[in-house]
Specification:
The chain is built from four helices and two strands. By secondary structure, the protein is an all-alpha fold. Helix 1 packs antiparallel against helix 4 and helix 2 packs antiparallel against helix 3.
């Protein structure tokens, strides 16, 4: 309507680009490397605990998943998984609306796959349970630590002043 003075506030951004969060890449990746170290150490502790427990169970001493080469594989894969999760967090922080929610779901579902995976082989049931527990603890650690590092490395810009079309 001509001559009508609209007193409502505009909800748009006035043509300005949307404010994107700032990512401290060094903080994110140093947290990711620290998570990789923690995940590898969790794998090592898990293997050592299982070795002790398997010595008490008759007939379960021959578990190749928990010998030296199996321990190296578990620790290496845990560290690699932590670095992949950090890369995924970085990617999600750059382009998704709720990056930490998506990261939590992705890490949670991949952890569930890693927990079920040992039962799909012909391992002894005790070895499968032990490996599943190790995978679960590693996945929980990676999920919580990488999410924390991503949250700490993200800084929201200050809010923009409200749009005022009187000027």
């Amino acid at each position: 309507m001509a001559g009508y003075d609209d007193q409502t506030k505009r909800l748009g951004d006035g043509g300005r680009p949307a404010a994107t969060p700032q990512i401290n890449v060094a903080k994110l990746w140093s947290g990711g490397v620290a998570t990789a170290v923690v995940a590898a150490l969790i794998g090592l502790v898990g293997v050592l605990v299982v070795r002790v427990l398997l010595q008490t169970v008759p007939g379960a001493r021959n578990a190749p998943d928990f010998d030296n080469s199996g321990a190296i594989v578990i620790c290496s894969m845990a560290a690699i998984a932590a670095l992949i999760a950090t890369g995924l967090a970085h990617l999600l922080l750059l382009g998704t609306p709720r990056p930490l929610a998506y990261l939590g779901w992705i890490v949670g579902l991949l952890t569930a796959i890693a927990v079920v995976w040992p039962f799909l082989s012909s391992r002894q049931i005790l070895a499968s349970v032990a490996l599943a527990v190790i995978h679960l603890v590693i996945g929980l650690a990676i999920g919580s630590l990488v999410t924390g590092a991503a949250a700490a490395a993200t800084r929201r810009p200050p809010p923009r002043p409200a749009y005022d079309d009187r000027y």
